[in-house]
Amino acid sequence: MRLRHDRIAGFGVGFAFCLAAGVVPIAAQDGVTRPIGIATSVASSFHSWDGDAGSSGSQWFSTASVGIARAFQNGAALDLALRTGYVTSSSTTESGSGTVGALIDTTLHAKLSLLDDPRYQPFLTFDVNLPTGKATLYGDQQYAIMDRDLVPQDRLGEGFNANPGVGVTIPLSDKWIASGGLGYNLRGSYVPNGDTSRTFDPGNQLIASAGLTFTDDRTLFSLTSIHSTEGASTLDDEDYFRPGASTVVSLQFARSWAARHQTRLSFSVNSTKRNEFSDFFAGGFTEESQNSNSTVYQGSVGHVISLSDSLTLNGELGYLHRTRNDYAPESDFYTPAKEKISFGLGAAYRISDEISAVAGFEAFRLQQDATPYLGANTYTGANVHASIDIGF
Question: Which residue, among 289, 303, 202, has the nearest Cα to 243 in the 3D structure?
Answer without folding.
Answer: 202
